[in-house]
Amino acid sequence: MKVFLYDGTFEGLLSALYLGLRAGTDDLRIEAEDAHQPALFDEPIFHPTDEALADRLFALIRQEMSPMTLRHVYRLHLSEKPDAGTLLLPFLQLGFRIGPGINGLVTHPQVHPVLTMSRQVSRESHRLLGLLRFQELKGGLLYARYEPDFHQTPLIAPHFSQRMSSHPWIIHDLRRELAACWDTRQWVLRDLPAAETPDISSDEQELQQLWQAYFQHIAIRQRANPTVQRSFMPKKYWKHLVEKPGTMS
């Protein structure tokens, strides 16, 4: 089977998808080069990113299907799943035949896996908008660290650039060792090793102690419901929360 390999970028994915669509075959996989696991009868072909092809497919998806379809494609890329490109190829083949209606075919075998993964990525990003915790560093910079399941930083950084536009901040994905850095004008993605987690200011330490005390004070032991709490605030995110759920004195 032919395997179209790309460099792991969104533009690279779109380039490979464009070429896959033009090939007009279902007997094809599309994978990021660093995630490719060669099989015995694979025929891997690396395709360098072609921004012109990527831009063309981007525009065609938006025009022939819808902006929502484009969001599904982008979320599949951010899922970092090895089969994301392979799932997207038949999804887009169908989309170019039926148009915007593809977003409503939730049970179709070429659509269901894409919409399911897109919803998982979207659900986590919405959850993180309420769970991300910023801390003031010694220099006054605001800093938040987290370890999302999916590559969420490009999805949540625009929200915080609007909500906290007047103050510089860093959102640090420890798992991917990437950070979004906002300077009050624009945000950019930078490599940032997980080991480089800076010290918080003394004021921040006092505020965290006050917040933890408040969290304990307002808790009503008789009404504690850990199951419901975990449904809204999954335990895997507790590590970077100031209030430390599950600790009730």
TrEMBL record:
<protein>
    <submittedName>
        <fullName>Probable DNA metabolism protein</fullName>
    </submittedName>
</protein>
<feature type="domain" description="DUF4130">
    <location>
        <begin position="83"/>
        <end position="243"/>
    </location>
</feature>
<dbReference type="InterPro" id="IPR023875">
    <property type="entry name" value="DNA_repair_put"/>
</dbReference>
<dbReference type="InterPro" id="IPR025404">
    <property type="entry name" value="DUF4130"/>
</dbReference>
<dbReference type="Pfam" id="PF13566">
    <property type="entry name" value="DUF4130"/>
</dbReference>
